[in-house]
Amino acid sequence: MMFSKSKDDMKKPATNFGAAPRANVAPTPSIIGSDVQIDGDIKTVGELQLDGSVSGDLSCGSLVMGETGVVKGTISADSVTVRGAVQGEIRARSVRLEKSACVEGNVFHESLSVEAGAKLTGHFAHTSSAADAVQPVVEKPKLVESKAVAE
Q1: Does 51 map to a domain?
Q2: What is the pLDDT along the chain (151 residues), one digit of tens a residue?
Q3: Global confidence as pTM
Q4: Does 5 fall in a domain?
Q5: Total domains in the fold of the chain
Q6: Is residue 4 part of a domain?
Q7: Which residue, among 79, 93, 85, has the nearest Cα to 127 in the 3D structure?
Q8: 3-state SS string for 37-101
């Protein structure tokens, strides 16, 4: 018979919850809507679109903050685009502050882009290695003070 099962196969439980994730498939981006407020840390290896509010540390592969997005805590990611408000440290290989961004805190980066109109109050420091940008630094790098508003 073409579709028959043996008696031994019928005794085995049919479960699929132990399946391994597919290799070489990018995780689905996570979206936190503007009506969402999270008190606590967030960790994901994938991309995060943040339009809501987070009070806690945020660690992700890539972060895109909308104009309504707010983070009060440390951001660690490979790339960060900010259109909203950050109160805390940003550690990323690539940081982009768009014109509606308002950042109060230190920015550690390998690449930094600041659009006219973005507000940055704090220190920013170029790190020579990608690992230093994303990982906490035991010995602080030389900081450059910036309290100017790019216009």
Answers
A1: yes
A2: 555 556 665 555 555 545 555 555 566 889 999 999 999 999 999 999 999 999 999 999 999 999 999 999 999 999 999 999 999 999 999 999 999 999 999 999 999 999 999 999 999 899 876 455 555 443 444 454 445 455 4
A3: 0.71
A4: no
A5: 1
A6: no
A7: 93
A8: EEECCEECCCEEEECCEEECCEEEEEEEECCCCEEECCEEEEEEEECCEEECCEEEEEEEECCCC
